[in-house]
Amino acid sequence: MDRPVASSPDTGLAPHRIEPERRRGRGARSNRPGRYERQERVAEHDGWDIAEDLPVLRTQVSEERPRKIITYNRSPDLPFDRSINAYRGCEHGCVYCFARPTHAWLGLSAGLDFETRLVARPGVAEGLAQELAAKSYRVAPISLGTNTDPYQPIERRYGLTRGILEVLREARHPVAIVTKGTLVLRDLDILSEMARDGLARVGISLTTLDPVLSRRMEPRAPAPAKRLEVIGRLADAGVEVRVMTSPVVPGLTDHEIEALLEAGAAAGAVAASWIMLRLPLEVSPLFRDWLEEHYPDRAARVMARVREMHGGKDYDAQWGRRMRGEGHYAEMIAQRFRRAVRRLGLDRDLPPLRRDLFRAPVPKGAQLDLFGA
């Protein structure tokens, strides 16, 4: 049954909720259509008294050929101006993921579609080589994992992130990676080589040390203990690692800030960062719905803290405020973080990744390839 989509993303979740047995291992509870859709599809009982078992939601992957590989941004809140995303959507299913609303651009839901209907982008490595070879290109660090995780489970099948790293290694181009995935260890051969030349570092997102909370909040991401092992393995291989205590969730993970930083430092991290919980667009109703299912006794307190930091709203998209919030609570979290990183030696500024080693790649099929150049 089709009907017009409600104008506000804060309404209409209930008709789109998926039964728990069909969404095992998923973060969102519902699949409301994206904000750009004019119609929504709602399941209605057919009136027959015949039991029908609906299938469990499975991950589906489609493919697209991207026109542009490097995405540029001018945000003053970000420490980089370019990034690459080899995948759209993310199977880790983190319920708080600020990237969920981007699925609306594909005509899909920011809810369960975001974590079950993924898009891989074959050809990303070849396209990257061509863009780096352009005479107009000016080198600066490229970030991987700024929107969706480059080491989510389907990377094992597609290997797109490794292909990107192979191009960057050949070009001696700086790269910074953010991930929760243990699959990053597969690429230690490339990362350790690049790190020796000051061309690579990795940030590992560590939101909680509680495995139960982690499984509910980030259902298909590696457990906290596994991420700490990844930090140790990367550090042992000579790769500088930043422990990223992000997002800090008021009333759920905020009490763990010091413990998270201590665990990261003990594992081998050399720097740290943090970002407050962000709930843009469709993420807010999805997160509130998740809270009511898993932590109904804390839901009101969590959202009260969030709104306290954003002028009474669930989210404030203003630059300079969206990452950390404002007010007494936000400042208290910032002070605790500063004191902890200072005590643990994680407050040092890492040297910038090198740009002077860059050499433009020769794309496959170029004339010089005929001579083995």
Description:
With 373 residues, this protein is an alpha/beta fold. The chain has a single domain (63-349), classed as pyruvate-formate lyase- activating enzyme. The chain has eleven helices and twelve strands. The protein has helices at 112-116, 124-133, 155-158, 160-171, 188-196, 211-217, 224-236, 257-267, 283-294, 299-309, 328-344; strands at 2-4, 39-41, 60-63, 71-72, 82-84, 87-88, 117-120, 142-144, 175-179, 200-205, 241-248, 271-276. It has a seven-stranded mixed β-sheet, with helices on one face. The protein is globular, with a radius of gyration of 22 Å. The protein starts with a strand and ends in a 29-residue tail after the last helix. The model is unreliable at 1-11 (pLDDT under 50).
